[in-house]
Design a protein that fits this description.
Two copies of one chain form a homodimer. The first copy, chain A, is built from 15 helices and 16 strands. Chain A is α/β, with parallel strands linked by helices. Chain A has a seven-stranded parallel β-sheet, with helices on both faces. A four-stranded parallel β-sheet of chain A has the order 5-4-3-6, sandwiched between helices. The radius of gyration of chain A is 24 Å and the shape is globular. The N terminus of chain A is likely disordered.
Chain lengths: ~425, ~425
């Protein structure tokens, strides 16, 4: 008896979801070695098909240019042969990670002799809905398969040909492996109705991960009957405490704001203890301005930086994720005021304190309810790779299931395993 | 600056959700001792108000009787003074549990010297939507508060007066504590529109837990923009392997089916290895029948139990959660066939294997993707208390966040905490 024989689907998306469920059940029964080998075959197939993938990408690029796309957007879409080799290398890195499955932890022996533990198992079927960058097609497939899941991929129309070529290569690699080919499926249409149908397959799909702009994530959350892992905006804060050394503060603030301003873990609002402000703010402001950063300050900041080019911040600025060379700056009375500001305006993404006072560092880390909280380090470290998770499939800003950067382990769950010798309940 | 001053709500439910968020942020800044003391004050207030609560319950009981409710349903609703004392004792047990918050684990030191760990923190605001049993009002409040959360409670109309009296007592207890009173709020209307409004407060509420019938859970899942923890049906299986001792098998099957047939971890389908079937089935069938259990068997079962009263099982029986003294029985060729049956008909709740073969036990535990998998023990142990979690707030049958029985820890999440000495990203 094969589960697939018993299934009947009323439309192609439902049929795809059912095939994914069957593939996930088969994958879950394999051992870690088989999954690792499958990922290595996937990587080899990507390399073997690099010319075809680059050709497909050229079709997407010229369509994008015809539609007036240019600059950074066009670069995000570009994937040449050397780029495909890098994508394959990233798949091999995921393959080399420890098997996340099967380990049992939190073991206890109950008074009646039952041995109880929690075993890590796959989630099942994951649907990824994403925009732009075609490398996500391979990254997401590798992470989901490493965790024993099946994945349904629905990329954006702008990368239609690239995604199809990458998925074809991946499936060709899987065909040589023990992992079923249908563990990786690409929705082969850019029809938006297909997404809505996908989001109704709660019987077959366990998790939806949207990756893209806030509009995409809100639309998916609104429509989905399946749990959604959300990655909303990052309004990240640094609080410069009274005792923060000037040079450390300047270096970290500059790094957090300037090194890559367009990403979610870049600094957006700087909070400065009023005692430290006269010492650190003029120096930091000078360096930021030299790097082309526009400053928008509270009235104390404007007064302190008299003569410098500082705009007056409005209430809207405290809410803003600029993703650009703009920084909001506010002088606060003390750490409690900084905590209040973050609780009110923060997005629960990433915040840092710069301080020499260990007890303040500890208090800040405990009190801030954000997914990553740092002491004396740049907010830019809020990243799965930097925090030691290996590659990341996203950064969750909702607290359910996973909070913050998500790696392979965050694509698993745990079941209770219980060993007895005849125990019954009385 | 107080966050509550800044809030403006367009309706009472939104205002309630905003107050809960403020209370949750305040609770999260308290230490474990303050939360424990608050729970003890809650318990004392329940005891002090036991007469008022029992009186309120009498109003609900007479309304229910007028509506024709009787028997088990009426008993579920009943809460006399002695019952309130038990409810208070349950709150004290939760109070006595270890503080789940603040511990840091999974610590690593990155090559750049960053020390990275994961600290356990509250989820924030939990909404419980439940039917019947008024003790859930106190249990849910205690579990949520122990984990540092605020909770919004919306009980069923049948327990309206009881729930209000319990919530009033709890809030009176909290008023003596450091935990804000608004950490526990009861939706004071049985208007169904209030639920829909509640499910739209994704900005203020982090998790919804519906507890009740499948209709309630589906309706909440359909409407909610907030993550929902689902507790669907339990079609629980026991597989009697070739080597299972007869007496152990008979005792466990009887316990799993008969001890409390109306609950989600009761046995619904028995699978028997064809070699063991002639040895164990006649004995088990005789004991079950003597206890009033109706058997519905596959054709092999019917043939084996010739003469006994066994109905012919239909395809529908394999899907059924009877919650009654009925058992579906199927003879299977081997363990793989049992695994296939469970994958196809199971509800991912709880399954057990009875075997003397340790390797089969291990394989079954690994292969079955259900929230609790047992070897040589009754399915009735799939329960937070029995598995050592303390009291449970529900049993999740979806794999996101928590899978299986959920205790206090499952009402928390983890954030990344990072300690550096000036690291920047290059």
């Amino acid at each position: 008896m094969s589960a697939s024989e018993q299934l009947s689907a009323s439309n192609p998306i439902e049929a795809m979801a059912q095939r994914a469920r069957v593939a996930a059940l088969e994958s879950a029964r394999l051992d870690g070695g088989a999954r690792r080998a499958a990922l290595e075959l996937m990587a080899a197939a990507l390399e073997a098909n690099k010319a075809q993938i680059a050709e497909a990408n050229a079709l997407d690029l010229s369509a994008a240019e015809e539609n007036g796309v240019s600059g950074a957007m066009l670069n995000r879409l570009r994937l040449d042969e050397a780029g495909v080799v890098k994508v394959a290398a990233a798949v091999r890195e995921v393959a080399a990670q420890d098997d996340p499955l099967g380990a049992v932890d939190d073991e206890v022996v109950r008074p009646n002799g039952l041995r109880v533990g929690r075993m890590r198992i796959p989630l099942g079927v994951v649907a990824m809905i994403y925009e732009s960058r075609p490398n996500v097609t391979a990254d997401a497939a590798a992470l989901c398969l490493k965790a024993g899941n099946a994945v349904i991929l629905r990329g954006g129309s702008e990368a239609f040909y690239s995604n199809r070529a990458i998925a074809d290569a991946i499936r060709a690699g899987l065909a040589e492996s023990k992992v079923p080919v249908d563990a990786v499926q690409l929705v082969g249409t850019t029809d938006r109705a297909a997404i809505n149908t996908l989001l109704e397959q709660e019987e077959w799909i366990d998790l939806v991960i949207p990756r893209g702009g806030e509009g995409l994530i809100r639309a998916v959350t609104e429509k989905s009957r399946i749990p959604v892992l959300q990655h909303y905006k990052g309004v990240c804060h640094i609080f410069i405490d009274e005792s923060a050394p000037t040079s450390l503060a300047a270096e970290i603030v500059l790094n957090a704001k300037v090194q890559r301003p367009g990403v979610c873990n870049a600094l957006e609002t700087l909070l400065v203890h009023k005692v430290a402000a006269p010492r650190v703010l003029p120096i930091i402001a000078e360096q930021l301005t030299a790097d082309g950063v526009e400053l928008r300050g509270c009235s104390d900041t404007v007064a302190l930086l008299e003569g410098a080019e500082v705009g007056e911040a409005t209430e809207d600025d405290w809410h803003e994720e600029y993703l650009d060379l703009i920084l909001a700056v506010r002088v606060v009375d003390n750490m409690e005021a900084a905590l209040d500001h973050i609780a009110k305006y923060g997005s629960s993404h990433t915040e840092a304190i710069l301080t020499e006072d260990q007890s303040n560092g500890g208090r800040f880390v405990s009190a801030v309810q954000s997914s990553t909280v740092l002491v004396n380090a740049s907010t830019r470290f809020a990243d799965g790779g930097e925090l030691g998770l290996g590659a990341e499939i996203g950064i969750s800003t909702s607290k359910l299931h996973a909070f913050g950067p998500m790696g392979v382990r965050e694509l698993t769950t745990r079941k209770f395993v219980v060993f007895g010798d005849g125990q019954i309940r009385t």
